[in-house]
Every structure is written in structure tokens, then in C-alpha cells.
Amino acid sequence: MSETPKHSVSVAGIVVRDDGRVLAVCRRDNHHWEPPGGVLELAETFDQGVRREVLEETGIEVQVERLTGVYKNMPRAIVALVFRCSPVGGRLATTDEALSVRWLTIEEIRQRMDPAYVVRVTDAFSDQACARAHDGVKLVHI
């Protein structure tokens, strides 16, 4: 009998302001632009994890609204649950994880983020949750 495969679970927040701009971070470790997020801790609910990750990486407090997508990084076996959020407080701040934190337009997101992360943002503007797989950069069709 083979051992059950192990996956890592992460959460991310697509934080949208009233003017439609989206919160994004430029990561210190790889200089890639992404929505704020990270590994869900064992004792956290999904909402708690999203709120913690967004605050830790950006200084912004959020209200979690709804699940917008589930994404699997196939090579790394990471399953990400992505939630649309609205800002409710705090101030933008760079952190140990974020070299830069900005409110970007959708066009700026398309220019700065890899396709696997652009789709997470654009899916958050849809009425239905999506399920997608990617290779870390591009979507894969399975």
C-alpha cells in the first residue's frame, strides 16, 4: 500500500478597494509580485489565516468576503485557497516578507504578476469560484 500524498495548504487575499485597485506585494525572496498570502497554520480557520497573512505582509486589516478560487501548484503540491477581501483598517507597510506593497490597477497586475497569479486576481471579480492548476508560473490544463 502506498503512502497518501502530502499537500501544503495556503491562503491568499485579493483585497479590493472601492476604486477597484487591488493590494499586491513584491516578495523579498524572489522579487515577484503576488497577492498577499501564505501557509495556513494548523490551529487557524481559513478566514483567520487570510486576515493574519494580509496583515503580516501589508499592514492592512481586512474583512474576508468569499472564496473566489482554489489553485494547485502542481510541482510543489501546494493548494491555495483564495478569498476576496475588503480593507477595513491599517496602513500600508513593507515587511520582512514584502519589499514593496502597493494598490495596483488590473492592468498593472497583468504587467507585473505571473499568469498563475493574475488569474487569481481576475477570478476574484467573477461571480463563481474557480478551480485551476498551474506550474508555478503558467496555468496547466489537465
Structural class: alpha+beta
Q: What do we call the CATH topology?
A: Nucleoside Triphosphate Pyrophosphohydrolase
Rounded Rg: 14 Å
- The SSE order reads EEEEHEEEHHEE
CATH architecture: Alpha-Beta Complex
Please report the total strand number as a whole number: 9
Total domain modules: 1
In the predicted model, the low-confidence regions spanning at least 5 consecutive residues are none
Distance between the termini: 26 Å
Number of helices: 3
CATH superfamily, called what? Nucleoside Triphosphate Pyrophosphohydrolase
Q: Specify the overall morphology.
A: globular
Instruction: Give helix % range.
Output: 10-25%
Largest sheet: 6 strands, mixed
Name of the CATH first level: Alpha Beta
The proportion of residues in beta strands is 35-45%
Whole-number average pLDDT? 95
How would you write the strand order of the largest sheet? 4-1-6-5-8-9
Q: Helices, strands, pairings?
A:
Layout: E1 8-15, E2 22-27, E3 33-34, E4 37-39, H1 46-58, E5 60-73, E6 78-90, E7 98-104, H2 106-112, H3 115-123, E8 130-134, E9 139-140
Parallel strand pairs: 1-6, 5-8
Antiparallel strand pairs: 1-4, 2-3, 2-7, 5-6, 8-9
